[in-house]
Amino acid sequence: MSRVESAEVLLASPGRNFVTLRVTTTDGVTGLGDATLNGRESAVAHYLRDHVVPLLIGRDPARIEDTWQYLFKGAYWRRGPVTMTAIAAVDTALWDIKGKTAGLPLYQLLGGRSRDGVLVYRHASGASVDELLDDVARLLDAGCLAVRAQAQVPGIAGTYGVAHGGRYEPANAALPEEQPWSTEAYLDFAPTYLAQVRERFGFGFHLLHDVHHRLTPIEAARFGQAVEPLRLFWMEDPTPADSQEAFELIRRHTTTPIAVGEALTSIWDVQHLITRQLIDYVRTTVVHAGGLTHLKRIFDLAALYQVRSGSHGASDLSPVSMAAAAHLDTAIPNFGIQELMGHPPEAAEVFHTGLRLDGGYLRVSEAPGLGVEYDDAAAARFAEFSPKYLPIARRLDGSVHDW
Ligand code: KDG
Ligand code: MG
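^ thats the input. predicted complex w/ magnesium ion below
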């Protein structure tokens, strides 16, 4: 019987830091899993090397659910992003191995195809409204069907989501960059530029916006009301979801759809949001929410309450994650949309994914398993791995705010 022979934690920085787990079986089959936790990469790498890899050696790679339960319940300490990312890496690698062993692309093992392509949204941003409008035009011209729009709030340097002459990469500094924040300025400004996007480009595409945890529930309710005529596809993370009940207040006041979950790691973190129908899209991801096994469990719960998936797909989720997400998105009935921020070009030298962007849709390859190859020779060219932090937000009075 096949057994896990080795599991390697691979660090590479092709344009940004990525942590990858590669599991190899005694039959010589390999599986890949993403283990990248932005800004806290080495915590997961150590957790895997010191506490998980020794438990994998000699295990039956076919027992995916059992391995998930063993790692989750066996840790005793519940959930947490480091643990859940480490479990996700193992889980994804084992699904990859199962697909390769069966000779089937992963979506076939997850129930088969429910759709031809995965609707994705891309990021448009600008340091001014004119720059944002140009960026939206660029994406629509390229055939994009869904666009997230973020603009620099006047006077608020470093507003979340705004690229300054190139790619947006928030984890950009050896120590956290401190950025100012004004809720008042944002609430006055954001609805006006989103309105300008609709005025210029109309309603023939999906428009999204990420509030990025910056508002209180009542402020979020006000924002949601203000943008109702713009028919957003969603407002994302309007308030931190540390208290799931907080969304009841937002929901009472606005019909703007709500998406939450990119920073959450388990089904229990979204249980109340889903079962009370407080959100419309759940943004949990393969890499941070315990892998395909656990994410499918979350999406199955969501389906009972007409909540759709809208998985996180920022650049800090590696191409391995994006492939895993695209397979799950292809298979599940309640798929909503997939974020596709894109990666630095160097990442494609290390990760060969076979994913294809076709107009506004992402399509998975028919290769067995995830369909991702990890190029060790290319990774060696990007071996220098230096820690990078996400920024910190401070209100204009100097106190710390949610970033
Ligand atoms: O690591 C944090 C980023 O992934 C996050 O800030 C990106 O909010 C984000 C998004 O919606 O992609
Ligand atoms: Mg977000």
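Residues 81-102 form the longest helix (22 residues).
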